[in-house]
């Protein structure tokens, strides 16, 4: 199953290449933020915002309440722990 997982942008690590560090349940991962940038939204405006992440790309911005609801549901069905484990394995 392909899911966009909510994660919070913690820092911008490469403005030119549009890369940010996100946090998902204590796991940090670099993601491309090109899809969520626009003329009115610069990279640093995204710090602490929640985004849906899929295969290393932030696809859309979501509000914090929706992010927490989604994470809760994913945790209940077991998808969150599997995703976090996959992210951890990718770091090795």
Automatic annotation (TrEMBL):
BP terms from Gene Ontology: protein maturation
InterPro entries reported in the protein's UniProt record: Hydgase_assmbl_chp_CS, Hydrogenase_HupF/HypC
The organism's place on the tree of life at top rank: Bacteria
Record-linked PROSITE patterns: HUPF_HYPC
GO MF annotation terms: carbon dioxide binding; iron ion binding
Membership in a protein family: Belongs to the HupF/HypC family.
Protein name: HypC/HybG/HupF family hydrogenase formation chaperone
Organism classification: Bacteria, Pseudomonadati, Pseudomonadota, Gammaproteobacteria, Candidatus Pseudothioglobaceae
């Amino acid at each position: 199953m392909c899911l966009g997982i909510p994660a919070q942008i913690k820092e911008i690590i490469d403005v030119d290449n549009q890369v940010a560090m996100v946090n998902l349940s204590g796991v940090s991962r670099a993601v491309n933020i090109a899809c969520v940038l626009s003329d009115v939204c610069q990279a640093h405006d995204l710090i602490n915002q929640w985004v849906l992440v899929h295969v290393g790309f932030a696809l859309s911005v979501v509000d914090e309440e929706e992010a927490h609801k989604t994470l809760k549901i994913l945790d209940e069905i077991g998808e969150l722990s599997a995703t976090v484990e996959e992210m951890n394995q990718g770091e090795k």
